[in-house]
Amino acid sequence: MKLALSTLGCPEWDIEQICSVGREVGYDGIDFRGYQEQLDVTRHPLFTEQSDTTASKIAHIGLRTSAFSSSIRLCDADAREANVTEAERLVEVATAFDADRIRVFGGGDSDRSTDELARIGGDTMNAILDIDGASDLRWMVETHDEWTSSQDCRRLLDELPEEHTGILWDAAHTIRLADETPTETLDILGDRIEYVHIKDAVLDMSHDDATDDGYVYTLPGTGDLPMNDVIAALHDDGYDGWLAYEHEKRWHPSIPEPEEAFPAFVDWFRSLE
Fold first, then answer.
1. DSSP alpha helices (H): ranges in 26-170?
2. Does residue 208 lie in a domain region?
3. How many angstroms separate the CA atoms of 177 and 11, rounded?
4. pTM, whole model, 2 decimals?
5. CATH number of the domain encompassing residue 248
6. pLDDT tens profile 106-135
7. d(CA 198, CA 245)
8. Which domain holds residue 262?
């Protein structure tokens, strides 16, 4: 498997520090979810008018851009125009960075049925694929929000063109929020999973920086989530794609600093090999 760090984990770092630390501690790539003060990197000059310089910096140090993680929500009917506009910017940036994967969310109005939301998602995805260059990329729906359970994700996939779309498995979400074991998730979605997010957490309902379901993110291998089982299940399933460490420092400032967390992830993963 190839290891990527998510820039969610280092919201104060500049591109030089991201690249140098990433290469030094053993990552293969960078998953861009925000850069410093800007969450949408397609609106930052380093990724637009300065894209050639930034992409060269990443390549020169021996890293790749594993993905751009967008805020697109396919099943939000009211945001269709905004979603397509964001996708247009993402296609341009991804092309400049020689990246071939874009993360999207399912999202949508929880008052609508799963079937209706899935149809909306399919319509939005088809509109995105009409963008010049969009069909050269992989559009990955994350197991997130209304689309955390594997069965629901399967319903959404029914509406999406298989040749251009897949699943980004956020293992912490399916375990915590859908009550699925890693093997259960892979049994249902394994043939469509092409990217994986890893993070660990401890249950602490009283913590000021806990998630909505009471978990606090911690260093990998030190929490309550069976992340070792996730890696074992991926190995058993023959997965050899990207494994991105999504350390959510941007959203949860009290969790460990990136200087500690990024090396800890690589050390933990290597200890399982």
1. 51-60, 80-96, 114-129, 150-157
2. no
3. 26
4. 0.97
5. 3.20.20.150
6. 999 988 999 999 999 999 999 999 999 999
7. 5
8. 2-199+225-272
